[in-house]
Write a structure and sequence with these properties.
Elements lengths: L2 H8 L2 H17 L5 H5 L8 H13 L3 E2 L8 E2 L1 H10 L8 H9 L8 H16 L2 E5 L7 E8 L5 E7 L4 E6 L7 H12 L7 H28 L3 E4 L7 E4 L2 H4 L3 H32 L1 E2 L2 E2 L12 E9 L5 E10 L4 H21 L2
Antiparallel strand pairs: 1-2, 3-10, 3-12, 4-5, 5-6, 6-9, 7-8, 11-12
């Protein structure tokens, strides 16, 4: 049981009603609520002094706040959280809202991106908030890839697809990576990525790693058998071949050549392992392609609320999300069913159009 749920469970009926009425009034008009106002609305007849005492207790619990000394109360962030989790009554989706959202998917002639853009615009219009639609990641042949450092633990990968689509994803690069190592990774991938999807490139790199591993094993077998070399951390991801009696190899030109070849293969193997890790992180990275269907194109989450719901593809896998960003006094009871229904619509769109 969370702290807010526990607090709510321990409240008596009077405290719970005072809290609920303060929050509902605030969400409706944004104004602080005073004790005299509540005396006219309470289901039982109580004095303004009694309600003030209840409000003071709720303020002590961190659920209400006073904007000014003589003003009424408004809910705090914690208070809104508790209200949404425990007291919110979610209404049914209104027919007008349903029809407006259904109309966004009326055309089958355009692509998914255009449909999602329309969904975002409609969601913003219906809710009067800033809408957010995270599009599913694109799976098409890639034309170009670029890695850009954003700090010591964040990087951006820019994917340019053959169909002209451009997608940015943020990821956490492996430790120790430098701008030059990321450029090297991008150059290596761009040399072989043409016409391949991200998944196909991952398979190709895995095959390359397996081939290098097998070649190293074959070349090192004779050295290990003769006792001139031994595996350190055999079977580990980053094993090493330790050479014993290096002087003895001078008498064997073939042995020296094999050793040099193994060294070259190890360097290549490590580079491809780094590339494989970059690709894996790229595939898992956060999609940052966002459609905003409101006139205010820039918004801050500071002091705002986000009502968000994931949507799934035909395989019931979560591939994106839709949401509404607005002031903390959103009409949650109305917004929640709209967002939920929109997520279902987008999921059906993605499933129908592959």
């Amino acid at each position: 049981m969370s702290d807010s749920t526990k607090i709510l469970a321990e409240m008596n009926e009077r405290s719970r009603e005072v809290f609920r009425r303060v929050v509902e009034s605030y969400l409706s008009n944004g104004d602080p609520v005073g004790s005299r106002t509540l005396t006219r609305e309470m289901s039982e007849k109580v004095s303004a002094a009694t309600i003030r005492n209840v409000m003071q207790d709720l303020e002590y619990l961190g659920l209400l706040d006073s904007p000014h000394i003589s003003a009424g109360r408004i809910p705090t962030q914690d208070g809104l959280r508790m209200f949404v989790d425990g007291l919110l009554e979610v209404g049914d989706l209104e027919n007008t809202d349903r029809r407006m959202m259904d109309a966004t998917l009326g055309s089958n002639s355009d692509d998914v991106a255009a449909a999602l853009d329309r969904v975002g615009a409609a969601l913003s219009g219906v809710t009067q908030g800033a809408s957010l639609v995270l599009a599913p990641k694109h799976e098409a042949p890639i034309k170009h890839i670029e890695f850009v450092g954003l700090g010591h633990d964040r990087a951006l990968v820019v994917l340019v697809f053959a169909d002209g689509h451009v997608e940015n994803r943020v990821f956490n690069p492996p430790p120790g990576q430098t701008p030059s190592s990321m450029r090297e990774a991008a150059n290596f991938l761009n040399a072989l990525i043409e016409g391949k999807t991200l998944s196909e490139v991952q398979v190709f790199i895995a095959e390359q790693i397996a081939a290098r591993r097998q070649e190293i094993d074959q070349l090192s077998h004779a050295l290990v058998e003769s006792g001139l070399a031994v595996w350190d951390d055999d079977g580990d991801t980053y094993e090493r071949l330790i050479v014993r009696g290096r002087a003895n190899l001078l008498n064997s030109e073939a042995g020296e050549e094999d050793l040099e070849r193994i060294r070259t293969l190890f360097d290549d193997l490590e580079r491809k392992r780094d590339i494989a890790e970059f690709l894996e992180l790229t595939d898992e990275g956060e999609g940052v392609r966002i459609f905003i269907g409101s006139e205010n194109k820039l918004f801050s989450l500071s002091g705002s609320s986000l009502v968000v719901s994931p949507y799934m593809n035909a395989d019931r896998k979560i591939v994106g999300a839709v949401g509404v960003i607005g002031p903390t006094r959103l009409n949650y009871g109305r917004i929640v069913p709209i967002v939920d229904y929109t997520a279902q619509l987008v999921g059906k769109l993605i499933a129908d159009r592959g």
